[in-house]
């Protein structure tokens, strides 16, 4: 496998060379590589990998973002936000950003797990999700009122949580995202797939390749859009229009007025902005065997970080929350004979033999 995917230790040593190649093929891209150097000892050691930040210009100009590799700690998160702020030209009130956690903290499902530990019941769960997914205060208050009728203590428990933390209707209108779960993080982790366990150079270049293909696929998809809005938004609007057919109109005067439903959509959901996001491309990077031999990089002998191995066997699968469905493999108790192919007996008791 090392001959195909590369060695983990050698992969870290090639990162400075890879960064040089990426910058040569992508103008206005940014690569930041931090190392730890122990200067306390009399004999200096080679620098040790610490943090790697890659900002591809095609992703930045198309409203995408870069790739970051680091151990999670206060220092590394500070490094990430500092580079992210520089990449975005600073954070501002007019252009807020949403950070979706992949640990189910401060998201609706985390509150649901806590809620169900104290207040179990299908009806309570139903009205909890109804309150969380409501687009207006009337629907939110209706669901809370139903919860109050079923369990006053559950109603009081929900009132202690700020609505903007878990209910869709109270989200900041500047943020064009109405997700109440962290399914985006889960889908991204699934999209990354087996790359997470690969050597670091295979991981970084694998992500670059995936993003390169994704940009081109989405660009071709955008060229096929016939209307002014992206298909997902059109689908939701058509659903709303279909539901509104059941409404009764009351005549207010002699004249009738009609407003196109497409006019109330934010410009971020337009085809124009969709094409802007995918109008740039990520250029190919040559295989390491074709890299120039005279590349001048610093450091030249980067060592891998010290492995902090935890006790027990490493876990790859996501730890599921309490109450979350588990995949149960059910085995049939029915025996099939390999000789007669009949059910109910095996070859030792088969009458054919």
Question: Can you tell me about this structure?
Answer:
Strands 1-2-3 form a 3-stranded antiparallel sheet, sandwiched between helices. With 353 residues, the protein is mainly α. It has helices spanning 2-5, 8-13, 15-25, 57-61, 74-88, 108-118, 122-132, 137-150, 152-159, 183-192, 200-223, 231-244, 271-277; strands at 30-36, 48-55, 67-69. Among the domains are: 2-102 and 182-224 and 276-290, no CATH class; 108-170, no CATH class. The model has no long low-confidence stretch (mean pLDDT 79). Helices cover 40% and strands 5% of the residues. It is built from 13 helices and 3 strands.
Describe, in short, the structure shown.
With 353 residues, this protein is mainly alpha-helical. Helices cover 40% and strands 5% of the residues.
Q: What descriptive keywords fit this protein?
A:
353 residues, mainly alpha, 3-stranded antiparallel beta sheet, 3 strands, 5% strand
Order of helices and strands: HHHEEHEHHHHHHHHH
Q: List the uncertain runs.
A: none
Ends: how far apart? Answer: 48 Å
Name the helicity range: 25-40%
Return the structural class: mainly alpha
Rg, rounded, reads 28 Å
- Spatial arrangement of strands, main beta sheet: 1-2-3
Largest sheet features: 3 strands, antiparallel
Record field, number of beta strands: 3
Indicate the mean pLDDT.
79
Shape: extended
Q: What is the helix tally?
A: 13
| β-strand amount | 5-15%
List the SSEs and their pairings:
Layout: H1 2-5, H2 8-13, H3 15-25, E1 30-36, E2 48-55, H4 57-61, E3 67-69, H5 74-88, H6 108-118, H7 122-132, H8 137-150, H9 152-159, H10 183-192, H11 200-223, H12 231-244, H13 271-277
Antiparallel strand pairs: 1-2, 2-3
Helix pairs in contact: 7-8, 8-9, 11-13
């Amino acid at each position: 496998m090392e001959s195909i995917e590369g060695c983990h230790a050698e992969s870290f040593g090639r990162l400075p060379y890879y960064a040089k190649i990426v910058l040569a093929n992508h103008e206005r891209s940014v690569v930041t590589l931090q190392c730890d150097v122990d200067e306390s000892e009399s004999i200096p050691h080679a620098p040790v990998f610490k943090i790697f930040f890659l900002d591809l210009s095609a992703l930045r100009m198309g409203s995408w973002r870069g790739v970051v590799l680091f151990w999670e700690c206060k220092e590394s998160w500070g490094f990430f936000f500092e580079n992210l702020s520089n990449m975005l030209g600073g954070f501002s009130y007019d252009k807020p950003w949403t950070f979706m956690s992949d640990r189910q903290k401060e998201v609706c499902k985390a509150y649901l797990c806590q809620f169900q530990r104290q207040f179990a019941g299908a009806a309570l769960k139903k009205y909890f999700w109804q309150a969380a997914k409501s687009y207006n205060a009337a629907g939110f208050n209706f669901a809370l009122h139903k919860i109050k009728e079923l369990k006053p203590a559950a109603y009081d428990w929900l009132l202690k949580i700020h609505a903007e933390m878990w209910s869709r209707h109270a989200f900041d209108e500047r943020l064009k995202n109405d997700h109440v779960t962290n399914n985006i993080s889960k889908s991204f982790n699934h999209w990354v797939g087996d790359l997470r366990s690969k050597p670091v150079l295979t991981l970084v270049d694998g992500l670059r390749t995936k993003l390169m293909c994704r940009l081109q696929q989405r660009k071709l998809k955008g060229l096929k859009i016939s209307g002014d809005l992206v298909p997902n938004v059109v689908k939701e609007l058509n659903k709303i229009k279909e539901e509104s057919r059941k409404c009764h109109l009351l005549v207010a005067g002699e004249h009738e007025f009609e407003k196109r439903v497409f006019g109330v959509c934010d410009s971020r959901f337009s085809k124009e902005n969709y094409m802007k996001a995918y109008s740039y491309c990520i250029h190919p990077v040559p295989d390491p065997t074709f890299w120039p031999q005279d590349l001048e990089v610093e450091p030249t002998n980067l060592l891998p970080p010290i492995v902090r191995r935890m006790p027990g066997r490493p876990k790859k699968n996501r730890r599921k929350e309490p109450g979350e469905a588990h995949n149960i493999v059910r085995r049939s108790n029915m025996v099939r004979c390999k000789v007669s192919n009949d059910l109910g007996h095996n070859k030792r008791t088969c009458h054919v033999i």
